[in-house]
Amino acid sequence: MALRELSSLEKYLGLKKPNKYSTQGDKKVPVLQNNNGPPLVGLVTIACHLVKEANRPELLGDSAESRAVVQQWLEYTVTKLNSCTKEDIKTILKDLNLYLQDKVYLAGNQFTLADTFMYFGLHPIIMDLAFQEKEQFVNVTRWFDHIQHYPGVRHHLSPVVVLRNRIYTSRHH
Question: Can you give the pTM of this predicted structure?
Answer without folding.
Answer: 0.87
